[in-house]
Amino acid sequence: MKNFHLDIITPDRKVFSEEVAALGVPTANGIIGVLALHEPLFSALTEGEIKITSSGKDYFLAIGSGFMEVTKKGVTILVSSAYHAHELNEAAIKKAQTAAKEAIANHVKGVELGTAQALLRRSQFELKVLRRRHTRPPDQSIN
């Protein structure tokens, strides 16, 4: 399978920069799959999980919202946040998830409700990525 270059960048750092075989990213309309020689594309991304296939193995990252550009040179993803599974703290995620559920159960409104719902969504996909923590050793990631 032919590879292409993938860069994942946040405002704070370059999270990932490698040749990969395939990519799956979350959008408002579902998951977009990208392979080498994909047609040029620009797309908004939603919070969720990125799946990267490289050297026959799958790797996962939890991302915030952002954008993806696919060109003949490769793929660039610019997102508000991106974390490898080994960077996530399960206790902190579960604490945030509990706080979000409590806020929603207490019928908060307006901005507080939106914040609680976003926190709950983020904690759900972060836990999903965290469960995959052993799929990519920390020493093989870009920090």
TrEMBL record:
Keyword Ion transport among UniProt keywords: yes
Any one of the GO CC terms: plasma membrane
Record's keyword annotation contains Cell membrane: yes
Domain ATP synthase F1 complex delta/epsilon subunit N-terminal: 4-82
Domain of life: Bacteria
UniProt-annotated location(s): Cell membrane; Endomembrane system
Any one GO molecular function term: ATP binding
Pfam family, one: ATP-synt_DE_N
Function: Produces ATP from ADP in the presence of a proton gradient across the membrane.
Membership in a protein family: Belongs to the ATPase epsilon chain family.
Official protein name in the record: ATP synthase epsilon chain
Source organism of the structure: Candidatus Gottesmanbacteria bacterium RIFOXYB1_FULL_47_11
